[in-house]
Amino acid sequence: MNKYLKIVLYGLGVWVVPFLVSFIIYPLKQSGNPLFESLMAVVITATVVLLILLYFKPLENHFLKEGVLIGWAWLIISIAVDLLFFTGGPMAMSLTVYTADIGVTYLIIPLVTVGMGYLIDSKVGIFKGG
Fold it and tell me: Which of 37, 62, 71, 74 has its CB 3.0 to 4.6 Å from that of 110, i.e. a possible disulfide?
């Protein structure tokens, strides 16, 4: 599969999985339960970890570089798709509210991908005598 197509498809997965889970647990948000926000952060993190592992599996090097690239790509994809939903219609919210409620949470994405890329690159260097 083309690298950039893979980045986009996995990026959409990073957005779709939490979006679907949010529908299932939405009653928690409606009742004002902070558990909703905590669970969403866990779901986003778990999704990113799973997809970054799948993305990294065929690679042999440049994990940090790839982690930076896909982390920011997936962050941008998630925000772009969100903005389609949250700038109009029944889920409309201001950019300020969106950023505070959802957008900041997406910083988990590059934190995980860059962190894992750095860790794997450092371990690969050790195993290759670097």
Answer: 71
**Cβ proximity of 93 and 101 under 8 Å:** yes
Q: 87 CB contacts (<8 Å, ≥6 apart)?
A: none
Print pLDDT tens along the chain (130 aa).
899 999 999 999 999 999 999 999 988 988 877 899 999 999 999 999 999 999 999 999 999 999 999 999 999 999 999 988 887 777 788 888 888 888 899 999 999 999 999 999 988 755 555 4
Return d(Cα 102, Cα 82) in angstroms, integer.
9
CA distance to 86, 88, 92, 93, 103, per residue, from 96 (Å): 12, 14, 12, 8, 9
117 burial via Cβ count (<10 Å: 0-12, 13-18, 19+): buried
pTM of the model: 0.89
Amino acid at 65: K
